[in-house]
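pinging the channel bc i need a second pair of eyes. not urgent but kinda urgent?? the chain im working w is below, pasted from the shared doc
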Amino acid sequence: MEDVSRRRVLQGLAVSTGLVLTGTHPSLAGASPAEAERAGRIAGPGTRPDPTRPEGADLLPQIDHIVIYMQENHSYDSYFGTYGRGDGFTIVDGRPTNSAKDPKGNAVGVFRATETCQTGRGVSQSWNQTHLQIDGGAMDGWLHDGNTSAMKYWDGGHLPFYWSLADHFPLCDRWFGSAPCQTYPNRMYLQAATSQGLVETDTTKALNLPHPRGGTIWDKLNAFDISWRDYALDLPDIALFPKTWNANKDKVRTTGDFLADCASGDLPSVSIVSPGGASYTEENPADVQLGEKFTAMLVNAVMASPAWGRTVMVFTYDEHGGYYDHVAPPSAITPDDIPPDIDPATDQPGRFDLYGPRVPGFVISPYSRPGYISSVVHDHTSVLRLVETKFNLGALTRRDANASNLLDCLDLDGPPTFATPPTLAQPGLPPTGSTCENTPWPPKLVRST
């Protein structure tokens, strides 16, 4: 009974330690994050999920494997605005009515894409563009530059596997990017709960940053001899942190290795899996159906694995890619005292106290709550908090210390609903492959030597 009660407390932390849905953390009223941390009003770096037990203690014995998968560049509304469950578009007479005004004041409504390759003018998720799109929370700046491509959306006709996934497993409609900017900063938040000031996908800047003061989640796992691997088609996620990369090249594997390890049940305690840097990604102008097919390959491999019964797979997107979303990002707790690396003379003002726009997020497990829509505020550091909750690890920064831990999406007290995994819809990619992208299917998957 004590163990059951403890699990229920941990599940409650998914809500109580996350930002409330209004986006204003009650413990921050009238204080800076640093002041609130010193006063004990918010959790700080090093905070353990269960302070009565040591780091490394297993708080979630039902789960042996956590698989992290992050795709590229789509807002929640761009894929699930017309899904019908969760907070999507306003639908009147069967049609979405959401719109934004172009520079001439003309209303331009969201519209269904006629193709799966993201043709037309490319959309942007840079620091400046994203802040203009958010427009202080009005969410009306999507057409500030006249680019109507930002108003496109795709649906279940384009992406049947994704919609089928949402029919069965938890879909999060309040999962926000960790920062209102590009890929590298958000993938750094996923691994270190900070971007150390980085706001752009700039390799030179990223690789010349000092190692995060709190380290990465991979450093934490190493400290307690917890197994992990980075499975990459071409570009490992840990490569964003040179110190971690140089010390852990033996833990880098290929996508082919991931499929083989799923088949054998030889998954480590924690895995991170990524699409290619230039292939099987969903960043414009890629074919979103190729990305969906790649995702389906990974998800189906996890569900078919002998390890499935003790696995949680978390699937999300790094940022919104510049596509419309109608929900204003809430305020966020700054991870540390490092300001964004922006030019006050030319860049939009801001700090790391605001999430980026919403992205789709799924929690896929035998223990998933069936058909559940999570409206708890999550961001990429919620994935860190899930790993930290599993192993009672101290937080890396203020951000993950106060993040939700995704346990609202799971029912760990009863028998698993999906002990036998569901059969999901086939991806939308035609048997002949992409009609608009010269990327082969299936991908050439090699094994590590």
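so The longest strand covers residues 65-71. and The mean pLDDT is 92. — does that match what u expected or am i reading it wrong
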